[in-house]
Structure formats: structure tokens, C-alpha cells
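Per your request, structure below.
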């Protein structure tokens, strides 16, 4: 079982809890392969999707996960709510909970917003990304995708390339992977690499060709322009010249090495179309695994017992 009512980050999870979520997600992948990929596990639950930032993949993935668990869904648009009239976040959520919502999935531009909410409401809170802090379900789906290809994460070498400084995906990947025994290297321009990376258990490398030597997996991130307050690099052309993953660069890695990308992709900036659409990418596998991971998280946070999962899926 998970110890808390919320999933706010991977930093606070144990390796056993991460493994439980990944194993549960594998069971839900089998459900998704059925002719009718739906189970009535949460037909008495109401989940509110509270998105204060634009989202395509994450929001759709959560909605699909909730529908496949048969939950009732309320989609909340911050732009058309009373928040635009000065209402506070807590007042808004209190009103939602008065409607008997059981769980809130929230994305917010402020780091720590999910924690603020979770500390003030009795319903479970799932962090769908908070500022530059974490994006725990993205980290989990990346790890599930890697585990499927490699069999285990223990001892595997994963390179995360790009704008580490502003990436909540990078932080969730780092916390999760290191807890599961993987060796993580971060690579990117010096202004995009936070000083605390080594304290988090990572190796830092500023040379992409050197960083990916011997890598088992490469997770490519985009430049987070929307979170940068000052320009951290001369421009896309210079970034692409030094840090874009292309066929020539990938050919220098071992044949089993594969490529992930959390999206959205800026093609020909951090990754070429040849790599993004090539045989060594698992990007669409990440999308599929995202639904299964979110089903697993919602099921477990709703009180679902791992030992009862088999009978619940029948």
C-alpha cells in the first residue's frame, strides 16, 4: 500500500512504493488490451481535474485513466472560473469538495502548489506537474517504459539531456531512477544544469557525445522557454549544434540504447525527426504507459489493495 493519500513527488516515495505502482500499472496495461478496456473499480468515485496550465498529453491521459476506471469526472477550467475574479485556490477547491469530490488531479505553474492543496483538503491530491518542482506520474511512466525494455532499472545507465534547470520531469526521473538503483547522468549547457545535481546522486556532463557513451537509455528534454526568466542559451541553432540528438550521435551508442521524450518535442532543436520517428525511440510506448500508470496511481490512492487487484479486474 501507499503510505499517503496523495502523490506529490517521487522524492518522498520509497523504492517499494515505486515498484508497487509500476507493477500495478503492468496489470492495467493488460486491461487496456481488452476489447472493452474498462473496469468498474471506481464507479462510486468523483475525480476533479484542476489544470491551471495548458496541457494536452497529461490531461487527456488522466481523463482516459479515470474513465477506464469508471470514475465520474469534473474538468475544471481555471480561465473560466471564479479564480479570474479573485477567488483563492483553497476557496475554489473547497467548493469542489463540497460537491463530494474524492480526488483532485492538479497542474499548476507554482512549485509547491500541490503540497499546499494537499495539506488543506481531505481528498487525495495527484500532482500533475507543479512549476519546476516535480511531475511524478511522468517520471513513473518513463521508468515503466525503461523497465519494459531493460528488464530492470538496477545498475542501468540513464542519460537525461536538455534543460534540467527548469524541468520538473528531470527531477522526478532523477529521484525515481536513483531510488531504483539506476545510474543517472545529466547533460546540457552549464546554465541549464542546477548546482545540486550531484547532491541528488547524478553525474554531470556538459559534452553530449561523451555523456551518452555506454548509455542504456537517453531521455531527451526540450528547452523550457516558458519557465525561463532570463535567456540561458544564445539560440536554438547553437543549442542544436551542441546538444541535439541525431542519427550520427545515436549511432555512436551501443545498439540496445533507446530514446525517450516526454513531449512536446521541438523537432530539429533537441531531437531530429529521424531519431524521433526511428526504430530506437519508445515515445509512443511512453504515451500508452502513461494511461496505465495513472490508472495505477488513482486506484492505489483510492484505497485499492494490490492483493485484490486480480479480482477487481475480472
Amino acid at each position: 500500500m501507499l503510505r499517503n493519500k496523495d502523490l506529490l513527488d517521487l522524492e518522498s516515495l520509497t523504492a517499494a512504493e515505486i515498484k508497487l505502482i509500476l507493477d500495478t500499472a503492468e496489470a492495467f496495461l493488460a486491461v487496456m488490451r481488452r476489447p472493452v478496456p474498462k473496469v468498474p473499480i471506481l464507479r462510486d468515485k468523483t475525480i476533479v481535474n484542476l489544470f491551471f496550465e495548458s496541457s494536452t498529453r497529461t490531461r487527456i491521459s488522466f481523463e482516459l485513466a479515470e474513465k477506464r476506471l469508471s470514475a465520474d469526472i469534473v474538468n475544471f477550467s481555471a480561465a473560466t472560473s471564479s479564480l479570474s475574479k479573485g477567488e483563492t485556490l483553497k476557496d475554489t477547491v473547497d467548493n469542489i469538495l463540497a460537491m463530494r469530490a474524492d480526488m483532485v488531479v492538479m497542474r499548476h505553474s507554482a512549485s509547491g502548489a500541490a503540497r499546499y492543496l494537499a495539506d488543506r483538503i481531505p481528498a487525495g491530491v495527484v500532482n500533475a506537474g507543479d512549476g519546476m518542482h516535480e511531475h511524478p506520474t511522468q517520471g513513473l511512466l518513463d521508468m515503466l517504459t525503461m523497465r519494459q525494455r531493460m528488464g530492470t532499472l538496477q545498475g542501468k545507465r540513464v542519460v537525461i539531456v536538455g534543460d534540467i534547470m527548469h524541468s520538473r520531469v528531470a527531477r522526478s526521473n532523477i529521484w525515481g531512477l536513483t531510488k531504483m538503483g539506476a545510474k543517472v547522468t545529466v547533460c546540457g549547457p552549464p546554465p541549464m544544469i542546477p548546482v545540486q545535481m550531484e547532491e541528488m546522486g547524478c553525474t554531470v556532463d556538459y559534452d553530449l557525445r561523451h555523456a551518452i557513451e555506454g548509455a542504456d537509455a537517453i531521455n531527451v528534454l526540450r528547452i523550457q522557454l516558458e519557465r525561463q526568466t532570463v535567456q540561458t542559451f544564445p539560440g536554438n541553432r547553437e543549442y542544436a549544434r551542441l546538444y541535439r540528438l541525431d542519427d550520427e550521435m545515436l549511432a555512436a551508442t551501443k545498439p540496445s540504447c533507446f530514446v525517450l521524450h516526454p513531449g512536446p518535442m521541438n523537432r530539429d532543436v533537441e531531437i531530429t525527426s529521424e531519431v524521433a520517428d526511428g526504430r530506437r525511440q519508445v515515445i509512443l510506448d511512453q504515451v500508452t504507459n502513461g494511461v496505465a500508470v495513472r490508472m495505477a496511481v488513482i486506484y492505489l490512492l483510492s484505497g485499492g489493495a494490490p492483493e485484490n487487484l486480480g479480482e477487481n479486474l475480472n
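Residues 146 and 153 are 7 Å apart (CA to CA).

Regards,
D.
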